[in-house]
Amino acid sequence: MKVALVGIGKIAVDQHVPSIAASDEWDLDATVSRSGTVDGVTSYTEIDTMLAENLDINVVSLCLPPVPRFDYAAACIRAGRHVMLEKPPGATVAEVHALQAMAEEAGVVLFATWHSRMAKGVAAAKAALTGKTIETAHIDWKEDVRKWHPGQDWVWEPGGMGVLDPGINALSILTEILPAPVHLRRGIVQVPRNRQTPVAAELSFTGGVTASFDWLKQGEQLWEMTLTATDGTAVQLKEGGNRCIVDGADQSLAELGEYPALYARMADLVRKGQSDVDLAPMVHVSDIMTLCERETVDAFEW
Ligand code: NAP
User: Fold this and answer.
1) 165 lines ligand 1 (CB under 6 A)
2) Is the terminal CB of the chain with fewer CB neighbours within 10 Å at N or C?
3) Total domain count for the chain?
4) Which atom of ligand 1 lies nearest, measured to the CA of 36?
5) 247 and 122: one domain?
6) Could you report the per-residue pLDDT of 76-93, keeping only the tens digit for each?
């Protein structure tokens, strides 16, 4: 399948380009980016030009930040192309609902990807918790924004989500593996006084679920969650979901890494003509922005 990549920045270069190159199913045939390019691949700066000149490219993978993504996705769907959305799938829940309706009407596939759900231990965690009742669960998602988003001011702008940009990865895993849904009860977000989005969050959900997100973590980076069920089952996910320990024993892991698994899934969805749009993690982020107390903290500078 021929794919065009849009928004050639950090994640496109780190993950999408190598995953497409390693796949037998995909060819990277074009890029669209205002300044970024990929060696040996035809590059465009305007999405409409790429769509008009490459009628044989039937899949477009959008790696832009969430705020500009809607207009690009809408243009691709109007042009009859299948679309893959980086996470978070949009700036608002409503705009992704709009894309869903457009895709259905146009008869194209829309895939709202959640790369962390493809982390190698997530399926094992889900299997271990199926049919159980969760007693307690805690998430620690603590990383250094300067390392993972160097100089990316969009994360601090409205729609950039701040620490909820990595936090939504944890929520995408949580919503995948919990046997029953939960919802936010209370929380506090800390917002730097010179920025629009949170740098940290402490969250409490129904069902005994708590989460602690921090974007200023130095040294060891923590992407972990621990869950216990009422029957005593204890599940730990470490390394962003890539390691799963159940009752003290390491579990066998999925074969493909996160982004290769996303492209394999997209190939399957296109073959079947099915969309996959689960907005449960986005709903939690909207709830966090709606319900949490807001504390102003020290200014953030790169
Ligand atoms: P990025 O490098 O800042 O942005 C990607 C590219 O999008 C930029 O290089 C830029 O390319 C284009 N772009 C930025 N703003 C734009 C605008 N207003 N209009 C049109 N194009 C624009 O960001 P990223 O880290 O790759 O993140 C992109 C998405 O991937 C986000 O949704 C993020 O949550 C997700 N993601 C990121 C990571 C990570 O580790 N960084 C990991 C997983 C997922 P041009 O200047 O060439 O147009």
Assistant:
1) yes
2) C
3) 2
4) 47
5) yes
6) 999 999 999 999 999 999
Question: Using a 6 Å cutoff on CB, does residue 151 contact ligand 1?
Answer: no
Whether 254 shows a pLDDT value over 90: the answer reads: no
Angle in degrees, CA 47, 257, 19, rounded to 5: 35
Domain residues for the domain of 153 are 116-254+285-297
Q: Is the CB of 152 under 6 A from ligand 1?
A: yes
Let me know: does 84 contact 62? Beta carbons within 8 Å.
yes
Question: Same structural domain for residues 97 and 146?
Answer: no
Distance CA 141, CA 102 (A): 34
Hey, which residues are catalytic here? 87
Is the CB of residue 86 below 6 angstroms from any atom belonging to ligand 1?
yes
Report CA(249)–ligand 1 centroid distance (Å).
38
Query: 8-34 as b/e, with b when 16 or more CB fall inside 10 Å?
Result: beebbeebbbebbeebeebebbbbbbe
Q: Alpha helix locations (H) across 93-225?
A: 93-106, 122-129, 145-148, 164-177
